[in-house]
Specification:
This protein is mainly alpha-helical. It has one domain (about 10-195). The chain is about 50% helix and about 5% strand. A two-stranded antiparallel ribbon has the order 1-2. Strand 3 (about 145) and strand 4 form a beta hairpin.
Length: about 220
């Protein structure tokens, strides 16, 4: 049976579109421009943690992630991804992120997570701390540090800044570098969804690079 990435067996789907033209110098001040988002995200991630704890017990007793709680946490991840894409997680757009927990389909960075009808009671006890440890080690290198939804230091930020410097001198964002950054971020967001108990599908140890989810069958090279 042919399985496609980005379908129900791959519940976390990350999409991005590189805007053009991009300002050659705006990236130098985006850390200032994004401060209002950082403030809001600080409180949203506190709420995200509380909601995840409530969801843990709900899954443990009912095998279900309450849909309103799931939608809220998905909204926080979406908001964080848009801010990261605008700022030093990718620097892939100059379009200011909306203050929104919604889907925002017109924004150039999007995230979808399929809602699970049932989740394992057994996995909820171990996946967020034990099973995810190998991924934590890997994405710790990618991120360096995470501060309530935006990236600080780490490989992703370094690559994004390198791309911005090249953009400043050539007026072009290197496509190969962009594809790599998106692959790293896609890995991070898959792990984030798994650790937040939003899926039982174990994240693959794989870089799916580029702005679109790959549609190549997994049983083909």
């Amino acid at each position: 049976m042919t399985t496609l990435v980005g379908f129900p067996d791959r519940p976390v789907r990350v999409y991005a579109r590189l805007d053009a033209p991009l300002s050659r110098w705006l990236w130098l001040v985006k850390w200032i421009l994004a401060i209002p988002h950082y403030v809001v995200l600080f409180f949203l991630w506190i709420a995200f943690t509380v909601v995840s704890v409530i969801a843990f017990f709900a899954i443990l007793f009912t095998e279900r992630y309450p849909r309103p709680l799931f939608d809220f946490n998905l909204g926080v991840l979406r908001w964080s991804w848009r801010v990261a894409y605008y700022s030093y997680g990718a620097l892939g757009t100059d379009r200011y992120p909306p203050f929104s927990l919604g889907e925002e389909p017109d924004y150039p960075a999007r995230l979808d997570i399929a809602y699970p009808e049932r989740l394992s009671r057994g996995l909820v006890l171990v996946k967020w701390w034990l099973l995810a440890i190998p991924h934590y080690i890997v994405i710790g290198f990618f991120l360096g540090g995470v501060h309530h939804g935006w990236w600080d230091s780490g490989l992703i930020t370094v690559l994004a800044v390198i791309a911005a410097v090249i953009l400043a001198f050539t007026e072009k964002y290197p496509k190969d570098l962009y594809d790599l950054i998106l692959g790293l971020i896609r890995w991070v967001l898959r792990v984030a969804a798994y650790a937040a108990l939003m899926t039982d599908t174990y994240p693959p140890f794989r870089l799916d690079m580029g702005g679109s989810e790959p549609t190549v069958p997994l049983d083909q090279p």
